[in-house]
Write a structure and sequence with these properties.
By secondary structure, the protein is an alpha+beta fold. Helix content is 24%, strand content 35%. Bound molecules: adenosine-5'-triphosphate (ATP).
Length: 350
């Protein structure tokens, strides 16, 4: 049974459908990310779950309890905002104790609990420092400790790492994931960073224009997008045009590609989109010969040390191939090349 259940949750701001009849189930102990472009409704959905917005329709369940009308402070939810919302004039200890005071934890127990929470987020010894005397990563940990002080049933995080530099963000993502697994706390993370969502989530909810486009495990979403928006949004995907010839052949950008196993899912003459990941595209110098090959020209090569990205123009369509530096073909900008990929590495979208 779902731990958090959303049933037809809706929220409009004037003419904008910020959250459009969303149904979702989140299970106990899961870390689920809401991922999507700016304005897709991720924060609004999180705020509805927190009770910081009132929905126009639908229901929210936490466990077996209908919390749709329950005020925020009675929802057993801990939140960390992008801004962290720490009190700069208070010490670290006072910031965390504030959350304990609100819960009416007796003063005699507050100090011990503050120490335990700081231990939990690997921040011993900073209790009497002011917030301004901490690094960005340390402030993150204080915000998480304060959110956990309430022993919440659900932890909600709204872009908590977006202000950190890339290296620290990666370290904090890992730290959060390990802490979340250790505590087994059901967590929702709002992010527009695909790598962040892919790295630390059990499941990713991809949203666009107030709607859920796909829910799945990170690799499932990456390898088997069921929707053209998801295929395009997650990672880089080469989206090519195709026309189905028969059960085993598709004409892709005017070239016959064979080896498909389409069964009766598609009919002859049907127009489809073919998604191919850059790591599945092979590029070799020279003109194509044989099937399953498209001619192209190298427009740009980007070598960042850990990988090489080869940008091609294939019959007017942009195609990207990624290879490891060791496997880099001898190519230069402007060269004529052949791009190929196997049918079983592609996804076909209607
Ligand atoms: P971002 O990643 O930029 O934070 P988001 O996916 O979290 O975006 P939301 O903040 O949920 O998106 O906004 C969804 C839509 O609702 C947007 O079109 C936004 O402009 C609109 N919106 C959000 N809050 C309000 C508000 N208080 N008043 C009016 N419109 C709002």
């Amino acid at each position: 049974m779902a731990y958090l259940g959303l049933k037809s949750i809706t929220k409009h701001f004037g003419a904008v459908n910020a959250v459009d009849y969303i149904d979702l189930e989140i299970f106990s102990g899961e870390l689920v990310s809401f991922l999507g472009p700016s304005g897709c409704g991720k924060t609004t959905l999180l705020r509805l779950i927190a009770g910081l917005e009132t929905s126009d329709g639908g229901q929210i369940f936490l466990g077996s309890r209908d919390i749709t009308e329950v005020p925020t402070h009675q929802r057993d939810i801990g939140m960390v905002f992008q801004s962290l919302a720490l009190f700069p004039h208070m010490t670290v200890g006072e910031n965390i104790a504030y959350a304990l005071r609100i819960q009416r934890v007796p003063k005699s127990q507050q100090e011990k609990q503050v120490d335990e929470l700081l231990e939990l987020v690997c921040l011993p010894g900073v209790k009497s420092r002011r917030i301004s005397q901490l690094s960005g990563g340390q402030q993150q940990r204080v915000a998480i400790a304060r959110a956990l002080a309430r022993h919440p049933k659900l932890l909600l995080l709204d872009e908590p790492f977006s202000a950190l530099d890339a290296k620290l963000r990666e370290a904090m993502q890992l730290e959060l994931r390990l802490l979340q697994q250790r505590l087994g706390i059901t967590t929702i993370l709002v992010t527009h960073d695909q790598q962040e969502a892919m790295t630390i989530s059990d499941r990713v909810v991809v949203m666009n224009e107030g709607k859920i486009r796909q829910v799945g495990k990170p690799l499932e979403i990456y390898r088997h997008p069921t929707d053209p928006f998801v295929a395009d949004f997650i990672g880089t995907n080469n989206l090519l045009r195709g026309v189905v010839c028969n059960e085993t052949a598709i004409e892709v950008e005017g070239v016959l590609f064979t080896g498909w196993q389409l069964g009766d899912r598609f009919s002859s003459g049907q127009q489809v989109s073919i998604g191919v990941r850059p790591e599945d595209v092979t590029v070799v110098p020279g003109q194509p010969s044989g099937r399953n090959c498209i001619p192209g020209t190298v427009t740009f090569i980007r070598d960042i040390g850990s990988s090489v990205k080869i940008h091609l123009d294939c019959r007017g369509r942009k195609v990207v191939s990624t290879v490891l530096p060791k496997a880099r073909p001898r190519l230069a900008q402007g060269d004529t090349v052949t791009a190929s990929f196997s049918a079983n590495s592609c996804i076909i979208l209607q």
